[in-house]
């Protein structure tokens, strides 16, 4: 039974169980697996902030001018493709909450990936441009993503898309 007399001890035990001794086996398994690929002791040359950036990307939100540094284009799109230019314009107008939601949708993280593992925007083969497709236009299709690879598969929209429907935390966000 927790009361005011033992509350501090209870909190201490919960913290210990959840972020210290309670996860020791999982941390050791992670370390062993990581060491099979890359010697974890080599990471000591990096500061915590450098490691954070290398593994998780830039912490600050983007400005329109820096977007292209974190994005590559392939499979039918270039930086000069009209649909890409339109998307970058839209992304450049996002507020911080929209930026985090967009990144969460595309990459699974709330920030842009590091430049060493950029977001890849590719042309989505949609039902409208497939043989026997159902929709009249690519404008009817939604983008898809592969969060494990930082891929955004974007349909070849005919006009500037001003609404991206992104499901984030079980709510629909409209940009």
Provide a compact summary of the structure.
By secondary structure, the protein is an alpha/beta fold. The chain is 36% helix and 14% strand. A hairpin with a 4-residue loop joins strand 3 and strand 4 (151-154).
Helices and strands, with pairings:
Layout: H1 7-19, H2 24-37, H3 48-56, H4 64-67, E1 71-74, H5 82-92, H6 96-107, E2 119-123, E3 144-146, E4 151-154, E5 165-168, E6 171-174
Parallel strand pairs: 1-2, 2-4
Antiparallel strand pairs: 3-4, 5-6
Structural features, described:
This protein folds into two domains: 7-45, no CATH class; 64-174, Hect, E3 ligase catalytic domain (Hect, E3 ligase catalytic fold, 2-Layer Sandwich), CATH 3.30.2410.10. It has 175 residues and is of the alpha/beta class. 36% of the residues lie in helices and 14% in strands. It starts with 6 loop residues before the first helix and ends with a strand. The chain has helices at residues 7-19, 24-37, 48-56, 64-67, 82-92, 96-107, and strands spanning 71-74, 119-123, 144-146, 151-154, 165-168, 171-174. It contains six helices and six strands; from the N terminus they run H-H-H-H-E-H-H-E-E-E-E-E. A four-stranded mixed beta sheet has the order 1-2-4-3, covered by helices on one side.
